[in-house]
Automatic annotation (TrEMBL):
PANTHER family: EXOINULINASE INUD (AFU_ORTHOLOGUE AFUA_5G00480). Belongs to the glycosyl hydrolase 32 family. The keyword Hydrolase applies. It holds the Pfam family Glyco_hydro_32N. One of its GO terms (biological process) is sucrose catabolic process. It comes from Flavobacterium luteum. This is Glycoside hydrolase family 32 protein.
């Protein structure tokens, strides 16, 4: 096997060749999910940005399409979003053939090199063929730079409550909120976040949307706000905020302010490899889901990971929900249900008492790079519960629940390839345990080069990539000091 195919995931999106970072411009239309992405087709390191493009019927199996947007004399095409302009508010299409409007940042690298700081501005493009080809608007940019070095990543949402388009933009140390009636003329409505959450580096790639609180009719607004560096385990990560929006201003919910005072920030994913993620637009009300995908890498080492002809994958797409637990709002995320369609066989075990290190599945039963493992543990004490993916070469990933010291963790130190970057496996990644439980369900999605762990119905998520020359072959659970019960384990083999 070539190095390229050795590390290419089985079911996570990767570009055929060249560099990829952030997901961009995601929208759903006429049965197709569109995914654009920051792309440099000519090398496997970051460079002059294009928007690559892929389409899928289910967000799992992707077809890479032609490059959607090329850099031009106004600059590189940085991150942004796309919406279906159903009522043709922009006038670029018709009611019969609604235009798709993409909004992106022009990054003028030539100007940046002169030492000027106003080199990022916002621009639009439209498509009249359902996102396949694009025309850049002739009067770009539509939002000029207000003399801010970091001014980028516009994310548009149709605000059905106030009947307006809104757009959020990462602007230095805050999120700027704009509104528009036609997607061309934008008015600055407010700014959010200057002294809230984690700072110390530019905010990037925001997303802002209304979402129903699970099990109620209450509506809240959620702001996703990526930051690099500043993540809980180093490098890039995405924090979130929950509050209310009056059509102009986003105000944090009181309990969320308390949560920030207590934890500093709340993170969508505590692993090292889920960055710049945003949600799909135009998902029909009849579906009603908030569908999310993130870039499964980290700027600490993204340019150095040991793949050859391509670089970076996306996370498994996830459904985001907002829950209220005892007055505190939390985003939970789980893999989209479309993944279930690919389950070819389920091996089910029940009621194992774990009193020694227990091999749950071995090589003969599964291909550990196309797998979902769901298990529930009962009778947990203040102890450490360690789960291990390993192979005969003694490569291992450990993840688990340190209930004694109150954190979930992920440890990829013992995987063959780590030396390409000092940051890659320097430390064990941790996520705080903030509630008490003695029973927990864990869902683990395993591909050739990634592991995504969803604890407790997605209340805590940890996503990390790894590079192993031989596939992981077995899954075991290590003995803790106290016995506990593996209530059930479902090994879902996936077939693509
Ligand atoms: C985030 C980011 C964005 C920018 C893009 C450039 O990863 O830095 O802020 O638009 O990548 O590729």
């Amino acid at each position: 096997v070539t190095n390229e195919e050795l590390y290419r995931p089985n079911f996570h999106f990767t570009p055929k060749s060249g560099w990829m970072n952030d997901p961009n411009g995601m929208f759903f239309y006429k049965g197709l999910y569109h995914l654009y992405f920051q792309h440099y087709p000519d090398a496997t390191v970051w460079g002059p940005m294009h928007w690559g493009h892929a389409t899928s019927k289910d967000m799992i199996t992707w077809k890479e399409e032609k490059i959607a947007l090329y850099p031009d004399e106004k600059g590189y095409i940085f991150s942004g979003s796309a919406v279906v302009d159903v009522n043709n508010t922009s006038g670029f299409g018709s009611l019969k053939n609604p235009p798709i409007i993409a909004m992106f940042t022009y990054h003028d690298e030539v100007k940046a090199k002169t030492g000027a700081i106003d080199f990022q501005s916002q621009a639009i493009a439209y498509s009249l063929d359902e996102g396949m080809t694009w025309t850049k608007y002739k009067n770009n940019p539509v939002i000029k730079n207000p003399n801010l070095k970091d001014f980028r990543d516009p994310k548009i949402t149709w605000d059905a409550i106030h009947k307006q388009w809104i757009m959020v933009l990462a602007a230095d140390v805050e999120t700027k909120i704009y509104r528009s009636s036609n997607l061309i003329d934008w008015e600055l409505a407010s700014a959010f976040g200057k002294n809230l959450g984690v700072h110390g580096a530019p905010w990037e790639c925001p997303d802002f949307f209304p979402i129903k609180v699970e099990g109620s009719t209450e509506m809240k607004w959620v702001l996703l706000q990526s930051i690099n560096p500043g993540g809980p385990n180093g490098g890039s990560a995405t924090q979130y905020f929950v509050g209310d929006f009056d059509g102009k201003t986003f105000t944090l919910n009181n309990s969320f302010t308390q949560d920030l005072n207590k934890y500093g920030a709340l993170w969508l994913d505590y692993g090292k490899d889920n960055y710049a993620g945003v949600t799909w637009s135009n998902v029909p009300d009849s579906d009603g889901r908030k569908l999310f995908i993130g870039w499964m890498s980290n700027w600490e080492y993204a340019n150095k990971v040991p793949t050859k002809n391509w670089r970076s994958a996306m996370t498994i797409p996830r459904e985001l929900k907002l829950i209220n637990t005892d007055g505190h709002y939390r985003i939970v995320s789980l893999p989209v249900k479309e993944l279930d369609k690919y389950i070819s066989k389920t091996i089910k075990k029940e009621l194992l008492i774990i009193d020694k290190t227990t091999l749950v599945v071995d090589k003969s039963t599964v291909n550990m790079s196309r797998l979902e493992i769901r298990f529930t543990l009962n009778g947990l004490k203040d102890d450490n519960y360690d789960f291990i993916l390993s192979n005969k070469e003694n490569n291992a990933i450990h993840f688990g629940i340190n209930k004694k010291d109150k954190y979930f963790y992920m440890d990829r130190k013992n995987i063959s390839q780590t030396s390409f970057s000092d940051e890659f496996a320097k430390k064990i990644s941790k996520a705080p345990i903030t509630s008490d439980f003695n029973s927990i369900e864990v869902i683990v999605v395993i591909d050739k080069t990634s592991i995504e762990v969803f604890y407790d119905n997605g209340k805590t998520v940890m996503t990390e990539i790894y590079f192993s020359d031989k596939p992981m072959e077995s899954f075991s659970i290590a003995k803790a000091n106290s016995d506990f019960e593996l209530k059930n384990v479902f090994i879902n083999q996936l077939k693509f």
